[in-house]
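Q: Fold this one first, please.
A: Sequence and structure below.
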Amino acid sequence: MKELELKYGCNPNQKPSRIFMQEGELPIEVLNGRPGYINFLDAFNSWQLVKELKAATGMPSAASFKHVSPAGAAVGLPLSDTLKQIYFVDGIDIDDSPIACAYARARGADRMSSYGDFIALSDTCDKATALLIKREVSDGVIAPDYTEEALQILREKRKGTYNVIKIDPTYKPAPVETKQCYGITFEQGRNEIDLSDPALFENMPTQNKAFSEEAKRDLMIALITLKYTQSNSVCYVKDGQAIGIGAGQQSRIHCTRLAGNKADIWWLRQHPKVMNLPWVEKIRRADRDNTIDIYISDDYEDVLAEGTWQMFFTEKPEPLTREEKKEWIAKNTDVALGSDAFFPFGDNIERAHKSGVTVIAQAGGSVRDDNVIETCDKYGIAMAFTGVRLFHH
């Protein structure tokens, strides 16, 4: 198949629309559904991310994409009982499926943003992964293959319209890529930078020069995630999964704050008060996600007000106070942070420190590098200057 006609482009008024190859055949097969323009943009960007994560770490990898940026990305490490509970997968047996663990982590990082996501899997989609996907609100999935059981499960989703794409894992695009804007064609070499190279972490200007193997893995995950995130972007990673991604902000400190706030929310969802909220029976996962998000925010009264809390809880919970939140967030440690370009000021490091960051990889090259290094040294943070910028648009 050389081309595929689409219903419309980014918006219904943008017609005609298609994907096509200038030379050769399309490296994909639509096994179910009718993916749209944005679906394919998410599919192809997310596939590159998980393929590269798998190559760099040797572990099955997954990503949850929304509007051409990842909401989450992860490798297939086992989940603790706490993570199973906060990711709402404690009722599914995924322990023997690394790819299911990877998707549970990718989806669980920022469940609010992942609502209606497009999924990428580095490995064959198995039954356990398909059962996870079936219960979530999602637009589609791309993977190199599907087991028969998995495909049957996915074909039943969304009344038979769920988008399932199979991609040829051996496909290699041309080394030069083009795109158009305002009728003008842009051309550039593809970004083929190898982010698994240990040499990326050799230039360490900070007093602390210690990166554990786990830290290097998490920094690689952060940088590869950023490579496919709309810039400016910053990514916090812990234990093999992104826990906060700040994408598309004009100011880097806003990226750092946005991603740090998401990392804090991920950590606060593990607070005992949140873990033990007295939910009413059969509450929808989306309502539970939204309620948790409000409960741990400064707007908690929006879900604890009289006449409102009864819709969600069997009894009125005690609020999570600002002091309790601050104390709990302070317990989060060993977080890795990547940035797609240099940090211009030490304020980014100050914000990162509040969310438990202990290791950083960034391009370096700011006129205020001395201020950034000094701030890292104040907190004992180990930082590498990679010399690599990872803008993506």
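Q: Good. Now the second chain.
A: Here it is, same layout.
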Amino acid sequence: MNKKEKVIKIIKIIAYIFSYMMVTVVAFNYGYMYYAVKFDGASAPPSVSFIFAVPFIIAILVCVITIKVIKKRFKE
């Protein structure tokens, strides 16, 4: 395994971790907002918690773009 493949593998692992973090954060906040609306009288609907996914989606897209750039630059 050469250096390019190692770097790509590390970036894929980082993107994979970001995806699991995104699911965890959104699920936790959705549950929190659901019960906040139900019992505490919060004014925002639980679907607002999906906004927390935006930074993770951007990070995952940056990882994908980085992988494509690395493959293009170091074409063998």
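Q: Anything worth noting on the second one?
A: The mean pLDDT is 93.
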